[in-house]
Every structure is written in structure tokens, then in C-alpha cells.
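Q: C-alpha cells for this one, please.
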Amino acid sequence: SSSNSNHMVKNTFRDEVDGTDDLTNATPTILAKTGRRLLHQKDHPLRILKKQIEAFFHAQPPATAPPVTSNAPSSSSSPPPFVVFDDLSPVVTVEQNFDSLLVPQDHVSRAQNDNYYLNRRQLLRAHTSAHQAQLLSAGHRAFLVAGDVYRRDEIDRSHYPVFHQLEGVRLFDPDELRALGGRFEGPAVVAPTNGVADATSASRTTSGSDADAQPVHSEAASRACANHLKTTLEQLAVHLFGPGHEMRWVDAYFPFTQPSYELEVLYEGEWLEVLGCGVMKQEILQQAGVDDGRIGWAFGLGLERLAMVLFGIPDIRLFWSDDPRFASQFDELATERTRFKPFSKYPPCHKDVAFWLPDSRGSGSGGGN
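A: Here is the predicted structure, written as C-alpha cells:
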């Protein structure tokens, strides 16, 4: 009931939530999922995949500006190339989830039917991108964010209202972009934005090609940034899927990047959409206080979608299973990836069994049990 939901919202998040109101629609079942922390459960396949992606990015060259703080201690004086944030609260504001990412006010993704609102100002994050602005404002220039995200959806073998995303952000100054092959003189950001989202780019269905740079970007700088993004993510795909798989880039549209792309990998005879990405809208950086001429890229992927393919898990609901026959199949220290082995939906049952032995196996005096 509505009263039960309101009571559980207050008990679950206490000081994080500013009360409930007529927009509150987060159910007790969904609220209970916020404490499951699957990405922190040892040997869970989602955690294994997350750690594999982290290992790849920790091997990347560091960003020029070190992060201000980290949620994990470093064993050396130099910071890790990408700081990982995997324990951020799922409670975010409407501004964080939509406004900071330039999502139009009338965009369908804001609808109550698509989200779990806690009240008119707060909701359970619909994507990990909701934390971009706060991390950029804190001074981070290269980071990964992983966590549970919440979207209202019908439940079936490939859809569930709670799933997990991992995203990455990397910023570059003009000298870095020139070192990457960007042939341009002067700044990468060639004109200031006017503080208003570009209505033209926000309304079209695709963002075009590499050459379709944002008006505020040097085309050569944007191309260098996009090329680095594509090269990095192609290498990530090889890291996850192994060598020899065909890949293709598809032009896409996202409100927060331009140009935007999706990466697809041909795996076991089918094209698999792996992730979405693009050159970050400069207005997002400027609103977060990044006004030093840097530009950057961002990408995001769904962990369940990839884990189902890579581990051979046929049903997304299995990730939430408490059955030890599921959890015991995986080992995050294993050198080779484990493939899921199906088991009965019924719990194991151990019973004594009685049977007769044929005379030929006995002593000649008949069978026994």
C-alpha cells in the first residue's frame, strides 16, 4: 500500500530522503533491493565482471590532473589512473539524474511510469551518470562509477526493474589531445556555451559522425577525443570477449554526448550491443565547474547484459538468487571464466534409497536391500 511504501522509504533512507509526497511510487519490494549490494558479494558474477573492467582501466595511462580525493587508499604517492566509485548512495535528486545531464524537461525518461520517485525532488537513480556532475565538481578527471540502478519495467528473463551499470569518464587538456594526434592550434574549446542546451542537437534522432563536433569544440580536438574513446573501448571489448571478434560502431543519440556512438560485437553469431558512449557535452563540464579548456568522453554499459552472455546465464533473475547452487559456481580468483550450469528450480532433496541386488551379484541366497 501507499502508506507502507512511505513508511519504508523513511525507514530505509532516514536522513537521506526529504519525506514522501504524492509522487512517491517506490514499492517495498524495490526498496528492499537497495541493501542487497550484489557488486560487493564475493564471487558474484556481476562483481567478477566489474573487477575485470576495473583491471583494464587501471592499466590505462593516468589523467593529467590527479583526483582530489579517493574512496580507496592508494599504496603509492601517484594516484590510480581511474578512481573507482562503487558505493555511492542510489538516492539522487531530479537535478542530478536529469538536469545535470541536459535531459529535456519533456523527455519521456523523466516520467513517473519509468522511475521510482521517493518524492518530487528525489528518486532512485535511473543511471550511474547521475553522479557525473558531483565527481567532476570534486576535481576528478578520470573515474569509473558502478552501482545498482532502478527503472520501472516488466519482469521477464531479460528485464528486471533493478540492474547494474558501470560508466567511465576521461577528460583531456589540449596538449594531451595534440599528443594523441589532434591537428589543431590553440584551445580545444573554441567558444563558450550560452548556458542553454542546444535545442537543435537535442531534438534530432542521431548525432552524426566524427565530423559532427559540438559548435564549441575544435573539430580536430573532438575527433582526437572520439578516436581515443573508440580505441579504448575496442581494447576493452577484446579484454572481455577475447581477440578475433568483429566489431562495429553505430551512430547514436544521447542528450549528454555529441557525437554519440554504440559499440556492437559479433559474438556467437549475433551482434551484441555492448555499450553507449560519446564526447561529453561541454555544457555539462562547465556547469560542473570544469572551465579550464578540457574536453572529455564518457561511456556506460549494463553489467547484467554482458554477464548473461559471457557467463551463459539464461535469466536475469538468477543474479538475485540466494540459492547456493548458483553462487557456488563462480570464483573471482579463477583464471578462466566459468560458464553457468543449469540446475532444477526445486531445492535439492536428499533421501535414502532402497533397491534389490540381482542374484548374480549376491552370494546365491537371493537379493537384499
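A few notes: Residues 22 and 119 are 7 Å apart (CA to CA). The chain has a mean pLDDT of 86.
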